[in-house]
Amino acid sequence: MKADSNKFPELNKTKFENRGKEFKLGIPVTNAITIGNSIAVGFGDGTVRIFRSGQISEPIKAHSGVVLSISKDGEDILTGGDDGRFLKISLDGEIKEIANFGSRWVDHVTAYNGSLVCTCGNIVYLWMPNKKEPKLLEHESTIGGVAFDSKGRRLAVSRYGGVTLWKKDYSNKWSSSNLIWKGSHNKVIFSTDDRFLVTSMQENQLHFWRLKDKTDSFMSGYGAKVKSFAFVYDSKFLVTSGSNEAICWPFDGNGPEGRKPICLPYVGNKLVTFVEPFPNENAIFTGLSDGSVFLSEIEKSTNTIIIRSFTESEVTTIAVTEDCSSILIGDIGGNILWTSIWDEEEK
Amino acid sequence: MGETNKQVPVTVLTGFLGAGKTTLLNRILTEQHGKKYAVIVNEFGEQGIDNDLVVDADEEVFEMNNGCICCTVRGDLIRILSGLMKRADKLDAIIVETTGLADPAPVAQTFFVDQDVADRTKLDAIVTVADAVHLSTQLSDHHEAEEQVAFADVVLLNKIDLVDESRLDAVKERIKKINPFAKIIHTTKCGVSLSEILNLDAFNLKRILDTEPDFLTSDHDHEHDDDVTSLSFVSDTPLDMEKFQDWFSKLLQTKGQDILRTKGILDFTGENDRYVFQGVHMLMDASPMGKWPEGKERNSRLVFIGRNLESMNLKEGFENCKSA
């Protein structure tokens, strides 16, 4: 199989690869963010490149090390780097430094309606719109992840021992409460309906809280750390990496407790390393450790199609343009595919 | 801990404040000859470190929820090592400097416990810088100093120009009593060839076979205090694998907190391969390491470094593992 694919590479390409554009940059892709129909991609050499309509921009020299985190504020890109800088970058490549923490890394960045957030060690720095000085929210241990809810009134900060939930009152004062669960919590997200909070842990499992009554439980059984997870389709499912199948937990009703997940298997039995919801559909793109990417309907597992064949480099990012016309796939080996999702006749 | 060429070696520098860690670090960095190193420091600002890739970290020790009571890891290291592995430029090595009062166990355990760290990096060696003038007092006053010596693959006995020969011998004796494996290197101002402290591969099971002479002696006084000591055992009679596993796993489960490090080469009845293992507290890395060399006698050797070893009936336990 392998010898054949080297000899006739075009024979093993999918129709998506054949009609798309491939970029072999050789620089690890670390993350990406969709801004309208552009996709900004962060790299392991500190650069950011903008992809639009299958075209790639000149590299924007944002950080000197790795682009550790990426987000957006309106039409602007936000990045945090291992050079200690928190940056705002316009789509035409203009860089504005918001803060510089020197040899401390800017691990996470996010924003809501002009409020900008970055984390550095155990501190959340929060810039309210049009304020020059940030507000500092301190935590007892290093921050594993940070997320706003859909209305921007609550900010979840995961850390060792649980999550600190910051709440903003109508006079813009922040107060905090704690959601406690032993162990180290990494990435945190709200469900799209704000009813649940989910974290991934240092152990191979996820933890979740139902926010109305603060009941909590865990989702385990993974063979590896769960690094990528997201809610799809009005929070009907939480889709997760960390196994040889895409594990989709039901989050309708009272959540997943006592219920079984739907497990979507893939050819090759490789580790799922990245999951990305198909916007407004009960479907996901799944990236694997061998570089292959599939599109599956969650409740019709027979409806799985291959988007990209293997590159032998693990998939580190998948992003879809806002109009759902195109997808970008990036991997640790620096291979990027930009392709249209729909056939011409399907449009 | 798998073995692939892609794993970046990580050297851990421990030692009490003022022993000369920063001097050693700067020496490594100025003599690096075109190599790219990342340095993770914890006492930033005390003395400048001359490298373009210095990462400032907080020593964050946290417990794993895996039911292993003494299993603590360095959370900051997991985060930083994972981040460094995303870099486009490949690193030749990573050096982690710990604070003077740090227990090296969580650092070592991180490489056993975290799969991402174990896949992409490997613990190369623990190098402890010790001050020849003050080490004896520090060993008596601070258990952390004992742990740093106990975990060391190399002890850099620094500032030897400031002590006379008899004091130097005494301090060397003290180190050897705690840790008979550690290679002791005498220095003034940390003057040491980099090949003696970098790329040692000390945590590779194969390397344990190369350090066989260290297993030979078994002289120990019967101490009943909190001092860290070592005990070693040799058996020419092959061991029963089931009995050994039973004894050893129970021992680590119940006494793992006091057992700091273990190493061994084992000869099991009915097995053609040598079994090599090493452990840090309760965590173990073990593997068959090929056939016994021809013409060489087969025997089992086992070494413990820890506290209260005398209370664990180790000799009796080991004897009971011999095949009938």
Short recap of the structure:
In chain A, 3% of the residues lie in helices and 53% in strands. By secondary structure, chain A is mostly beta strands. Chain A has a 6-stranded antiparallel sheet, with no helix packed on it.
SSE blueprint and pairings:
The complex is a heterodimer of chains A (347) and B (324).
Chain A: H1 2-7, H2 15-19, E1 21-24, E2 29-35, E3 38-43, E4 47-52, E5 55-56, E6 60-61, E7 67-73, E8 76-81, E9 85-89, E10 95-100, E11 108-112, E12 115-120, E13 123-127, E14 135-138, E15 145-148, E16 154-168, E17 174-190, E18 196-201, E19 206-210, E20 215-219, E21 229-232, E22 237-240, E23 245-250, E24 262-265, E25 272-277, E26 283-288, E27 293-297, E28 300-308, E29 315-320, E30 326-331, E31 335-340
Antiparallel strand pairs in A: 1-31, 2-3, 3-4, 4-5, 4-6, 7-8, 8-9, 9-10, 11-12, 12-13, 13-14, 15-16, 16-17, 17-18, 18-19, 19-20, 21-22, 22-23, 23-24, 25-26, 26-27, 27-28, 29-30, 30-31
Chain B: E1 8-15, H1 21-30, E2 37-41, E3 54-56, E4 61-63, E5 72-74, H2 75-84, E6 93-97, H3 105-113, H4 115-120, E7 121-131, H5 135-141, H6 143-150, E8 154-158, H7 165-178, E9 183-186, H8 205-210, E10 228-235, H9 241-255, E11 259-266, E12 273-280, E13 283-291, E14 300-307, H10 314-320
Parallel strand pairs in B: 1-6, 1-7, 2-3, 2-6, 7-8, 8-9
Antiparallel strand pairs in B: 4-5, 10-14, 11-12, 11-14, 12-13
Helix pairs in contact in B: 5-6
- Number of distinct beta strands of chain A: 31
> Major sheet of chain B: order of its strands?
3-2-6-1-7-8-9
CATH fold field value of the domain at 36-138 in chain A: Neuraminidase
Q: In angstroms, what separates the terminal alpha carbons of chain A? A: 34 Å
Radius of gyration of chain B: 20 Å
CATH top level of the domain at 36-138 in chain A is: Mainly Beta
CATH architecture of the largest domain in chain B: 3-Layer(aba) Sandwich
The count of β-strands of chain B is 14
Give the name of the CATH architecture of the domain at 36-138 in chain A.
Answer: 6 Propeller
State the separation between the terminal residues of chain B, measured CA to CA. Answer: 34 Å
Alpha-beta content class of chain A: mainly beta
Would you state the CATH class of the largest domain in chain B? Alpha Beta
Largest sheet of chain B, in brief, is:
7 strands, parallel
* CATH fold type of the largest domain in chain B: Rossmann fold
Tell me the CATH superfamily of the domain at 36-138 in chain A: Tricorn protease N-terminal domain
Give the CA-based shape of chain B.
globular
Helix content of chain A: under 10%
- Pairing-aware structural class of the strands and helices of chain B? alpha/beta
